[in-house]
């Protein structure tokens, strides 16, 4: 049928099918800023303006829009430069991955058009339809207020870091009941607590604009799906409806005979090659328990068969025509039941490789001990034991998994994919496709969030197989339901802590027994659980420690990597347990922890026993920097911690059913995987003295490309915009493991710094000749020029032209790589303020404050965004997100809404402080920041509920009935 | 092959009714589309979009306010004649991207058991006008929710509510904007207190203070039957207390 639409002022007739969504038609017509987030419209990535109103274009038929006016972000874009709303978003640090930024900017436009001076509440309502998994909403909301001010003709002050005075360094005990001076600060100003040890820098440490700001703010085609391939086919998977079953027979003849179907693949026609799907360094940790297609299915949502067809509708229809006969087997979902010896065996195949005890569903067993745990427990004055259970959640990036594969003119396989690990994917997919690594090229464009779920070779083998089978480009995109049940999730665990303490509150012995639940495949199971042990047992000093862990196969959706990677589970248990022990001992909960937490110079002895994955650590690392003391007092003051001991505050007289509480959790993480994971970078100079920075590092919205460019700019004496970043493409850039394990700043950053140092050396050598200076070491690079000691200078453009064109020609260029010998821990103090309705169990979170020691934040704006957004994801983990399975293993809430993530209009107050320390092993003093914000919110809420009600809740999340039942049982 | 085989936009109510009266094809009414477009429809369904056939708009008539069935929820929220309780509860029907398309008539026809707006309409004594080939009639909302068969091949054209009377609402959910597990709305009427609950039955229902303890709510992962009954008792008591305790 034909419809008439006025799109961005241009009236035209468009052809569409009656069933097609407005989003599908707009994208087909090239309006790439309108993006897919969920088939049910809740993400708002698909939002457009219809007759000036913000609406989801996914749940509107194109035919419904016939005769109406549509606006997309393309209509707002200027030929050059940015619209004021876009400018406000960039300068506020409101953009991370940028996937939903076009919709958010349209929401802002619709609001400001009708209400030039909106309140914060009105802005939050205007953004309520656009889910943001990245920023925590603080920066987008205040960016809209800033944009409104700019459009009213005001000139807001630039967003600069707010310097907050250190409290510990002042000496004595600061007055914690004094009002927090930060209350009057601009909400957008990143709070930085400086350290005198940090040297002055020009570019590093500054709130620089993101290097990818323009394409993201304008919604330019930059993501996997934003290309058009002639003759492209669409893939659709048939997923298992059973939690555990054998495929007895499969008949694809009806599907194959459907016109438009080009290939149907399943276990009978795809080579059976075993692999582990986790994107990790060579050799991938065992077990190798997956094949592209198996004759058995092990969870609802497991792969059965895939179709490639001329359209997604034909592919979907063909999937329904595949006839599969299943022999349904008994299933098991609970990790403890799975390893009991009386459970169905999930991997009974002969060629099973590398699992600990498949007959008992044990994937991995980990045992690590420091000192003598039994003797330590026996010698302790008091012994405490408690069992905790943490649940299954999903990473839920707004851009789901998507990949497009094709054979190029050399008949090499190109896979354009939304991945955190392009180089690992290339190496891992090669044997599955029967192709050498040299014939495979992985391209990672902009990524709409990952959070670990894309540290996986998840669908790249499928599009690769289909491209080979059909000789055509093949696109596969998971819908939201598939993303929930068929990708990866966070490992549930049962955790038992047994802790011996002396009467003065000194830890004597600590044992952590963990049973992890990996679902039916062991990807990441060894390493996630190792990190659980590492974080659970190295946060505090203790002479006798033991980690004892089994990871179970079950028939739930598959667990994998999720930001935090085993630490949120461990720290929920540990920090709950520590609060309980302090209370039992009659000690202050902060003082008890302070007495025991690791300080500078303390050994991280469990690290030497556990490492992370294949790394075999040859020495006991020690803590080299810690701002923990400062983090705690900053957070205490910001959250008004003293109120927790005031009965009139805890039990407000005018609200008899309400109890209020404040809770704390200590957090400690790592910075990269020492001795194992490598970052690499190349830098070359251009004719005008600018540089290309080519990296394998993978920015998934974190701002990694920006902070790495800042590091290069700092060394080379140029502004950040002189560094043109390209990442990542396995044909073009040096190897890098990719984005995971809090490694990019610390490891890839050092690789960039080393490459820049070498380019610096080449430049000053050349400049010394040009300036006739004897010692190149006397030349200084600054302001895009090389300066002799006497003040004479040549510009970098002159240096570049000289070396590229004029004399003794040479490409000034360097490649460097780096593996860290160490993994210095960032520390953080997490505080939560909550209230509980004691009649219903409803918990309301009112405030979250996190003070983080990440060393030197390379970019305070992006660092603050990492902490704010991470805290809000962590809030979801603790408070409201859960994958609910029925008795047959079907996820009953595989949709946003029922799977609840926070919206802009219901957010608690959030505040992030960055407490500087100078970590000498890191680039410019930096440690990691990406993951630690995930670690402390759940235990801080739990401890706040304890403060409010006296009830200790040992399982997540804190949904009303769970809290109500815990209060009922005392 | 595709779920929707054709799209109709009738220009008048009569045309819409003729399209829906056909017995040889499967049809579905499309109001805003936020529900229909996220539902797995039967194959070869023909949609009948009411945007040109049924009126939107809000008008006051004595002690009642009428909403054209195609009134968007955001317009209901923004209109001065909308009773305050309905303004507040309509905001809870979803984020602005959906409120800008969802309609009053669609909300009524959907009968979502968790719709707080429906609970608010129940306590505001909503009357629903339904038109089909046999003509047009008014039904009490509670009667419609008890038996949706009246909407077979029919169209909701208007919803009217009584105004005035003190109101109160209480709810419990996982987060402040979450769809409530159970919610209660109450309003003082001539005969006493009118209370409706969500989350305790197949649709929002009117209850009396005394009948709450005998409810048998359906369970889901957010709330067992026992817990929902507990919530119903607590929330109804709170609403009654706020409205002076009269039942």
Polypeptide structure, described:
The complex is a heterodimer of chains A (970) and B (247). With 970 residues, chain A is an alpha+beta fold. Among the domains of chain A are: 2-75, Beta-grasp domain (Ubiquitin-like (UB roll), Roll), CATH 3.10.20.30; 233-329 and 399-486, Aldehyde oxidase/xanthine dehydrogenase, a/b hammerhead (Aldehyde Oxidoreductase, domain 3), CATH 3.90.1170; 364-393 and 489-623, Aldehyde Oxidoreductase, domain 4, CATH 3.30.365.10; 678-819, Aldehyde oxidase/xanthine dehydrogenase, molybdopterin binding domain (Aldehyde Oxidoreductase, domain 4, 2-Layer Sandwich). Chain A is 28% helix and 21% strand. Chain A contains 25 helices and 33 strands. In chain A, the strands form seven sheets. Chain A has a seven-stranded mixed sheet, sandwiched between helices. The model of chain A has no long low-confidence stretch (mean pLDDT 96). Chain B is α+β, with helices and mostly antiparallel strands and 247 residues long. Chain B has three domains: 4-49, no CATH class; 58-162, Uridine Diphospho-n-acetylenolpyruvylglucosamine Reductase, domain 3 (2-Layer Sandwich), CATH 3.30.465; 167-242, CO dehydrogenase flavoprotein, C-terminal domain (Enolase-like, domain 1, 2-Layer Sandwich). Chain B contains eight helices and twelve strands. Chain B has helices at residues 13-21, 73-78, 84-90, 96-99, 104-110, 116-123, 141-146, 225-242; strands at residues 4-8, 26-30, 45-49, 58-61, 64-68, 127-132, 135-140, 155-162, 167-172, 182-189, 192-198, 205-207. In chain B, the strands form three sheets. In chain B, strands 4-5-8-6-7 form a five-stranded antiparallel sheet. In chain B, a hairpin with a 2-residue loop joins β10 and β11. Chain B is globular and about 50 Å long. The N and C termini of chain B lie far apart (55 Å). The relative contact order of chain B is 0.13. The chains are: A alpha+beta (970), B alpha+beta (247). At the A-B interface, β4, α8 and α25 of A face β1, α4 and α8 of B.
């Amino acid at each position: 049928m034909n419809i008439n639409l006025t799109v961005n002022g241009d009236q035209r007739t468009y052809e569409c099918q009656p069933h097609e969504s407005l989003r599908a038609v707009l994208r087909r017509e090239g309006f790439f800023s309108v993006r897919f987030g969920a088939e049910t419209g809740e993400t708002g990535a698909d939002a457009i303006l219809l007759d000036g109103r913000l609406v989801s274009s996914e749940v509107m038929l194109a035919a419904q829009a016939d005769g109406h006016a549509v606006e997309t972000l393309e209509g707002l874009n200027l030929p050059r430069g940015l619209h004021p709303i876009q400018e406000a978003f960039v300068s506020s640090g409101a953009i991370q991955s940028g996937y939903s930024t076009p919709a958010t900017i349209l929401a802002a436009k619709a609001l400001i058009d009708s209400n030039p001076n909106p309140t914060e509440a009105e802005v939050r309502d205007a953004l309520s339809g656009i889910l943001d998994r990245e920023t925590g909403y603080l920066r987008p909301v205040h960016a809209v207020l800033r944009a409104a001010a700019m459009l009213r003709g005001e000139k807001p002050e630039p967003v600069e870091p707010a310097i907050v005075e250190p409290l510990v360094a002042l000496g004595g005990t600061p007055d914690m009941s004094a009002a927090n001076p930060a209350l009057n600060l601009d909400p957008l100003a990143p709070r930085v607590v400086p350290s005198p040890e940090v040297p002055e820098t020009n570019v590093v440490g500054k709130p620089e604009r993101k290097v990818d700001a323009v394409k993201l703010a304008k919604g330019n085609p930059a993501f996997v799906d934003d290309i058009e391939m002639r003759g492209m086919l669409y893939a659709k998977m048939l997923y298992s409806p059973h939690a555990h079953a054998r495929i007895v027979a499969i008949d694809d003849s009806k599907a194959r005979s459907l016109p438009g179907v080009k290939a149907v693949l399943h276990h009978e026609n795809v080579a059976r090659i075993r692999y582990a799907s986790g994107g990790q360094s060579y050799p991938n940790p065992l077990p190798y328990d997956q094949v592209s297609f198996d004759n058995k299915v092990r969870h609802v949502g497991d792969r059965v068969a895939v179709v490639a067809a001329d359209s997604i509708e034909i592919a979907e229809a063909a999937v329904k025509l595949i006839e599969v006969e299943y022999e349904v087997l008994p299933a098991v979902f609970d990790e403890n039941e799975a390893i009991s010896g009386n459970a169905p065996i999930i991997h009974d195949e002969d060629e099973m490789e590398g699992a600990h005890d498949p007959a008992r569903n044990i994937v991995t067993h980990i045992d690590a001990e420091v000192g003598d745990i039994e003797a330590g427990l026996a010698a302790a004055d008091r012994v405490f034991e408690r069992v905790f259970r943490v649940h299954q959640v999903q990473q839920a990036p707004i851009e789901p998994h998507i990949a497009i594969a094709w054979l190029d003119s050399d008949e090499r396989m190109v896979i354009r994919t939304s991945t955190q690990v392009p180089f690992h994917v290339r190496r891992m997919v090669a044997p599955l496709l029967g192709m050498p690594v040299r014939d495979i090229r992985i391209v990672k464009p902009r990524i709409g969030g990952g959070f670990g779920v894309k540290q996986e070779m998840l669908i790249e083998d499928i599009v690769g197989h289909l491209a080979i089978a059909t000789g055509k480009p093949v696109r596969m995109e998971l819908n939201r339901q598939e993303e929930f049940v068929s990708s990866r999730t966070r490992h549930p665990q049962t955790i038992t802590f047994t802790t011996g303490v002396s009467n003065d509150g000194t830890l004597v012995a600590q044992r952590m027994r963990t049973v992890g639940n990996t679902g039916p495949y062991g990807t990441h199971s060894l390493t996630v659980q190792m990190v659980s042990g590492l974080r659970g047992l190295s946060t505090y000093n203790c002479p006798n420690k033991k980690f004892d862990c089994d990871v179970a196969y079950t028939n739930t959706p598959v667990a994998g990597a999720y930001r935090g990677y085993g630490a949120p589970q461990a720290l929920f248990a540990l920090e709950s347990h520590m609060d309980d022990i302090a209370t039992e001992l009659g000690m202050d909960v902060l003082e008890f922890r302070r007495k025991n937490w690791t300080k500078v110079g303390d050994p991280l002895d469990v690290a030497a026993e556990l490492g992370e994955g294949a790394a075999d650590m040859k020495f006991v690392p020690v803590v080299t920097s810690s701002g923990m003391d400062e983090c705690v007092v900053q957070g205490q003051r910001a959250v008004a911690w003293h109120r927790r001991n005031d009965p009139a505050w805890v039990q407000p007289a005018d609200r008899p059913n309400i109890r209020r509480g404040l809770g704390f959790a200590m957090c400690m993480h790592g910075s990269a995987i020492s001795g194992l994971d490598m970052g690499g970078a190349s830098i070359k100079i251009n004719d005008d003295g600018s540089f290309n920075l080519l990296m394998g590092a993978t920015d998934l919205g974190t701002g990694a490309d920006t902070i790495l460019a800042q590091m290069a700019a700092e060394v080379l004496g140029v502004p950040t915009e002189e560094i043109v970043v390209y990442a990542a493409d396995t044909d073009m850039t040096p190897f890098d493991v990719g984005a995971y394990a809090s490694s990019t700043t610390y490891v890839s950053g050092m690789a960039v710094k080393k490459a820049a140092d070498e380019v610096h050396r080449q430049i000053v050598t050349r400049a010394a000749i040009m300036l006739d200076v004897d010692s190149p070491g006397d030349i200084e690079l600054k302001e895009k020029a090389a300066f002799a000691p006497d003040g004479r200078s040549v510009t970098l453009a002159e240096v570049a032209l000289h070396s590229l064109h004029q004399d003794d020609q040479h490409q000034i260029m360097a490649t460097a790589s780096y593996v860290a010998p160490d993994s210095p821990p960032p520390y953080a103090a997490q505080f939560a303020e909550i209230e509980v309705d004691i009649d219903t169990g409803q918990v309301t979170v009112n405030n979250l404050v996190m003070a983080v020691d990440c060393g030197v934040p390379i970019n305070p704006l992006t660092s603050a965004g990492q902490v704010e957004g991470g805290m809000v994801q962590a809030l979801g983990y603790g408070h409201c997100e859960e994958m609910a399975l029925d008795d047959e293993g079907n996820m009953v809430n595989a949709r946003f809404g029922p799977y609840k993530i926070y919206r802009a209009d219901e957010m608690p107050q959030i505040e992030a402080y960055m407490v500087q320390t100078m970590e000498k092993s890191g680039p410019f003093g930096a440690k990691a920041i990406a993951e630690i914000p995930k670690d402390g919110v759940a235990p801080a809420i739990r401890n706040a509920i304890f403060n409010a009600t006296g009830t200790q809740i040992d399982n997540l999340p804190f949904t009303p009935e769970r809290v109500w039942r815990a209060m009922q049982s005392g | 092959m595709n779920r929707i085989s054709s799209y109709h936009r009738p220009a008048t109510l009569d045309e819409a009714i003729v399209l829906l009266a056909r017995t040889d094809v499967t049809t579905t009414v499309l109001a805003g589309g936020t529900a229909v477009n996220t539902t797995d429809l039967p194959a070869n369904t023909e949609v009948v979009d009411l945007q040109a056939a049924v009126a939107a708009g809000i008008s006051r008539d004595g002690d009642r306010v009428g909403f054209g069935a195609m009134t968007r929820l955001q317009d209901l929220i923004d209109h001065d004649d909308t009773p305050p309780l309905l303004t507040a509860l309509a905001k809870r029907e979803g984020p602005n991207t959906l409120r800008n398309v969802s309609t009053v008539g669609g909300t009524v026809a959907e009968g979502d058991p968790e719709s707080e707006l429906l609970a608010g309409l129940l306590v505001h004594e909503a009357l629903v006008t339904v038109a089909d080939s046999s003509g047009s009639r008014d039904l009490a909302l509670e009667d419609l929710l008890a038996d949706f068969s009246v909407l077979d091949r029919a169209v909701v054209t208007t919803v009217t509510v009584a105004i005035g009377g003190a109101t109160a609402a209480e709810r419990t959910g996982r987060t402040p904007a979450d769809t409530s597990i159970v919610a209660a709305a109450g309003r003082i009427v001539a005969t006493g207190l009118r209370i409706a609950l969500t989350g305790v039955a197949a649709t929002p229902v009117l209850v009396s203070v005394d009948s709450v303890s005998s409810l048998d709510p359906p369970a889901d992962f957010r709330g067992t039957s026992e817990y929902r009954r507990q919530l119903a008792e607590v929330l109804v008591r709170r609403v009654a207390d706020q409205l002076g305790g009269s039942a």
